[in-house]
Structure formats: C-alpha cells, structure tokens
Specification:
The complex is a heterodimer of chains A (116) and B (112).
Chain A: E1 4-7, E2 10-13, E3 19-25, E4 32-38, E5 44-51, E6 57-58, E7 67-73, E8 76-81, E9 90-97, E10 105-107, E11 111-115
Chain B: E1 5-7, E2 10-14, E3 19-24, E4 29-37, E5 44-49, E6 55-58, E7 61-65, E8 71-76, E9 85-93, E10 101-102, E11 106-111
Parallel strand pairs in B: 2-11
Antiparallel strand pairs in B: 1-3, 3-8, 4-5, 4-9, 6-7, 7-8, 9-10, 9-11
The chains are: A mainly beta (116), B mainly beta (112).
C-alpha cells in the first residue's frame, strides 16, 4: 500500500515551454500532497503544499505563477512549470500524506526535468 | 529554511559492518522519519517514530526517537551492498506548520 506514482519520469523541453508533472496516489486518497525540488547531492526542498480542493501553499521564494499546482481530486495533484528556463532543470518529487493527522509522507519516484 | 543536523555526511564501510547515523535538532520534535533514496528515485520510508524513547526495527534497521525529543538515530546491522544509498532523516516540531524538516543526508557506500 501507499504507492505514489509520478509521470513523466523524465522530460526534456525547450526553454520557454511549459511542462506538466502528474502525481497520483494509487491505492489511497490524499487530501494533502507535497511538491519538492532536489538538486544533485542535496536534500529535498519543499516547494509547496497541495491541498485537495483549495489553493496550494507555497514556500517562501517559490513563485506561484511559475510553478502552478492543481489538486483537483483526492488522488491527483499536478505541477506545471510555466515558461521553463534552464535554471528550472532539476529533480521534482511529490509526496502524499497517508491520512489526515499523520506526518508520514510517501514519495513518488521523481521527475527529472531538463530544460535546454 | 530550517534543517536538521545529520551526521555523518558520508560513510564507506565493508560489507557486514554495522552502521550508525544520527540527526539532531535545536527544537523539540514530535515526529522522526527515516528515508532511503537511491539515485534517480524518490525517497522510500524506512521507519517512522512518533513517541519519545520509541525504538522501532525494520529488518536489519533500527531507529530510536531520542528521549530529549531533539535527536534520533538509525542503525543498520550487517550491511550488504544493496544498503548503498543516501539516508535522510526528517521530522516535525511542535511549532511547525506540519511541514517536514529535512536533514542533509548520509551517503552510504558498502564495499563488497
């Protein structure tokens, strides 16, 4: 149980295009999902908290118009990197909290984004 | 943002050896989580701790929630090559907005 999937696993795009990453909880409902960014050999950096049916909460320094988050259902959250630039290249990982009140987060396999 | 102090930063050991790593915080935590991340993959939960003093095992892995609630350790016994990876601690303190705070990771290499 507690499986989280991400799609795509890797994507290469041209500068200026937008990229959508999907995060799905496969065998449970997740009222809260989280989006992280990870640079090589570094820890995870929380970008935003995605709540089903409401606006995402962004961390300080993360542009909400740049990184659009939609959590339209209890099993799906999407992150759209708009007008991507090479500095947006990174490893993006989502996680989902299993039940309300539990702090345990289960992670997806990540999406490697390369912007040329 | 706030980060946990995780040590050691890296370890290189022989297969069969035991491993110990720990995380400390300047504030009291309510939850400690230990994850392992393989290259190009998302972190996988190893052990979750919710009570001070709690000692929990998962196969060859054992983790404890420190009594002071400001630290946690993870032990791996009789290491094997597939233990290679980066181990992260994560926790939540009482004053935090339910977000996890992450350690910087311990990179483990095992020599067969």
């Amino acid at each position: 149980g507690a499986v989280v999937s991400q799609h795509p696993s890797r994507v290469i795009c041209k500068s200026g295009t937008s990229v959508k990453i999907e995060c799905r909880s496969l065998d449970f409902q997740a009222t809260t999902m989280f989006w992280y960014r990870q640079f090589p050999k570094q820890s995870l950096m929380l970008m935003a908290t995605s709540n089903e049916g409401s606006k995402a909460t962004y961390e300080q320094g993360v542009e909400k118009d740049k990184f659009l988050i939609n959590h339209a259902s209890l099993t799906l959250s999407t992150l759209t990197v708009t007008s991507a630039h090479p500095e947006d290249s990174s490893f993006y990982i989502c996680s989902a909290r299993l039940v309300k009140g539990s702090e345990t987060q289960y992670f997806g396999p990540g999406t490697r984004l390369l912007v040329l | 943002g706030q980060q946990l102090n995780q040590s050691p930063q890296s370890m290189f050991i022989q297969e069969g050896e035991d491993v110990s790593m720990n995380c400390t915080s300047s504030s009291i935590f309510n939850t400690w989580l230990w994850y392992k991340q393989d290259p190009g993959e998302g972190p996988v939960l190893l052990i979750a701790l919710y009570k001070a003093g709690e000692l929990t095992s998962n196969g060859r892995l054992t983790a404890q929630f420190g009594i002071t609630r400001k630290d946690s350790f993870l032990n791996i016994s009789a290491s094997i090559p597939s233990d290679v990876g980066i181990y992260f601690c994560a926790g939540r303190n009482a004053g935090n907005n339910r977000k996890l705070i992450w350690g910087l990771g311990t990179s483990l290499a095992v020599n067969p």
